[in-house]
Amino acid sequence: MSLTASDPAAGRRTRPAAGRRTDLFLGVLGLASIVALTEILSRTRIVDPQFLPPATEMGRALLADLGRVDFWTAFGQTVRGWAIGLAIAMALGIAFGGIVGSIGFLRRATASTIEFLRPIPSVALIPLVVLIYGSRPQSALVLVVYASFWQILVQVLYGVADVDPVVRDTAHSYRFRSLTVFRTVVWPTALPYVVTGFRLAAAVALVLEITAELVIGVPGLGQLIGVAQSSAAVPETYALVIVVGVIGVAVNVFARWIERRVLRWHVSVRRDLS
Amino acid sequence: MNRIIAALLYAVGLPAGLLAGWWLVSDGSTSFFWPPLADIVQAFPDTWNSDRVLADVLPSLARLGIGYAAALAAGVGLGAAIGLNPRLRAFLEPALEFFRAIPPPVLVPVIALFAGYTGWTSKIVTIALGCLWPILLNTVEGVRGLDEVLLDTARSYRLRRRTRLLKVVLRGSSPQIAAGARQALSIGVILMVVSELFGANRGLGASIVQFQRTFAIPQMWTGIILLGLIGFLLSLLFRFVEHRTLAWYRGVRRADRRM
Amino acid sequence: MPAVATEAVALDVRGLQKTYSGQGPSVEAVRDLTFVVRRGELVCIVGPSGAGKTTLLRCIAGLLATSDGRITLDGVAVTGPPPGMAVVFQEYGRSLFPWMTVGQNVELPLKEKRIPKAERQRLVHAALEAVGLTDSARAHPWQLSGGMQQRVAIARAVAYEPSVLLMDEPFAAVDAQTRADLEDLVRSLWERLGVTVLFVTHDIDEAVYLGQRVLVLSNRPTVVLEDVRIDLPDRRDQLETRSLPRFTELRRHVYELIQLAKQGHRPENEGR
With respect to CATH, is domain C1-78+196-272 assigned 3.40.50.300? Predict the structure, then answer.
């Protein structure tokens, strides 16, 4: 039995194409309404414009930012920190997860340790990292890698565990070398999980990167936000928050796009596999 | 009996080994950042005595609890209302997705504009706001994805609105809501700490940072370990509750897989 | 034996019409359905695929608004899901609440009717007994096989003590062996409880085996092609009844009607 419409056999409540167009229109209307609301609340002083400036002022600050070199430098620093940290975490997570997941003894032996270390909030490491690296980018890197690593590791372990033992044994019985078995059996099965891990890790990585910049002062957009707020440049603060939000949305969209591409390719591979 | 012993060994083996290793490697260490584990352990009871626990740890946890509970109530309530109304959902979804994509710690300076950095209000509001989005959006997803036949059945037996909402819609979307609540919990812990790092504060995160600034390194380490323990215990608590309330969902998934 | 089919009318469908008008061109699914189900009858509805059988059922169940026409249940017009009607859906797996046990599933509609606890327990127990599932009251639906799940859905409908029982191709997703058992179950429940049953199916054999009457539908836009009276003996048996010559005749008649329907045949007296 199934529970939700995400099950292919269940009653899909999809909207017809024209319905989707209406949805898009409504969505854009929704965004516009939020902007309008901000403007109205602020201009009519229902909310003190010192705390919530009108949308137009935020927009003006945003446009001004787009012309500043230091803005784009910070932007690049944030994206670079995010990307490098994520890449390292992916590599470590896949390697570690692939090896541990494939060897029963290792999996069982490390399970409790992983379960304990995983929920440790990476912000707990902030004081340590500040001591060692100060506000250099390495501080952010450690936090980003630590947090993202667990997301990927957990997913890779799920993925390796999902390998059909019958298929794997068949491959072994044909005397495939371990590497071949990995390539032809384990990897295709684990791939969707790896991609899910990537999506989760990408979001977490951005959160930690911004946190490090905001809290520790690592160069980047988060640091600019901290500066803007403490110098009471309120529209500027909001403008930067919007930019960071847009980056967040872009990261989500990008990760989901990758997930779709990989899974589409994956379905055909899975078919060949059986 | 053997299986129990084996399971215990597996569970305890590596952690014990790592701790022992840490102890031995750091023994007699004169490094500034990496004091001997023995020193850290010794510093524990002194640092986290009842005064500090009352003045720092409990308030932090209380703020987390209040903010998280507020986010749960608002997120599930609003999420159900939005999820059941396709037009409203289409209207709000892009805006909600945008708000969710904003890294939560960034909320701290923004809320500070309204409510300052110190005191309970700004922290609770920050935690609540940060935890709200995953719960809200996941509830919307869960409600939206409910099986049509299930809803038709509820309608055909003339179940009252309240019954439909509580016993069908919310129970049916509880797996998704639980996923959102789990994400929200990690965000909540992050915000609990970050909200205490600006301005003058009492709290767990604030204490740890104070130790770091005054170079009380072993104490700082005890704080880090304590925070880790709290994160671990909270996640355990969550898993326990989830395990009990979603037992049926696991059963359904198992049955589906068998097919 | 069923309670005597008096002239009392349980369900009166007149001029039922349903047109879907989405963003595209409007589709007239059902043009004019007019028929009557008397109290205590077991009426089957068959038709070619896409004939709007499910649409018809959902309209009668009050789950779907009609474009025109009037549906009356026990003298009261149907505008939303009416009291006194229970529906058994084809997708049994998706109509039982997985977070409740079998017993709780059967009990839920009774709670809504505010039936006191002792009476509820009695009804639930009686219903589960009637479908042969007394041992499964504490189990969850997903622990049961498909046929058993459908029995739970039937038990839930029976415990509700409806005046009309609607069944929407309930055995389409079940294997042949189980289907035979479930058909006999429906027939025996109908005899014992005297409930009025409207049974939609695409299986001609099933319709002839179960029904006192078989309404054959045309294809889209749907009207009733013919109201076939099944004059088989009241005691039906899977082996014996199905080997009667009269069964074969009726079956062939309905089959021919369906073939005509598929080719777009319309009744001579089609007005609109």
Answer: yes
How high is the ipTM of this complex? Answer: 0.87
C229: β partners: C213
> Token pair 């292919």 is at which residue?
A8
Residues C221-246 pLDDT 10s: 888 888 989 888 888 888 888 889 99
Q: Give A54-273's CATH code, choosing from 1.10.3720.10, 3.90.550.10, 3.40.50.720, 3.20.20.70.
A: 1.10.3720.10
CB atoms C24 and A18 under 8 Å? yes
Topology adopted by domain B35-258: MetI-like fold (1.10.3720)
Helix, strand, coil percentages in chain A from 3-state DSSP, rounded to 5: 80, 0, 20
- A210-223 pLDDT, tens digit per residue, is 999 999 999 999 99
Q: In this structure, which amino acid lies at residue C26?
A: S
Interface test with A, best of C20, C26, C94, C142 (most A CBs within 10 A): C94
Residues 4-33 (A) with a CB less than 8 A from some CB of C: 10-11, 16, 18-19
Q: Please give the full DSSP string across B71-99, using - where no structure is assigned.
A: HHHHHHHHHHHHHH-HHHHHHHHHHHHHH
By three-state DSSP, how is residue C216 classified?
A: strand
Partners of residue C96 in chain A, C-beta under 8 Å: 1
Domain boundaries, chain B: 35-258
Tell me the two tokens of residue B207: 């204490």
* Domain chopping of chain C, boundaries: 1-78+196-272
Q: Residue B7 CA to chain centroid, in angstroms?
A: 28
Spacing of C-alpha A122 from chain mean position:
15
Q: Where do the structural domains in chain A lie, given as residue ranges?
A: 54-273
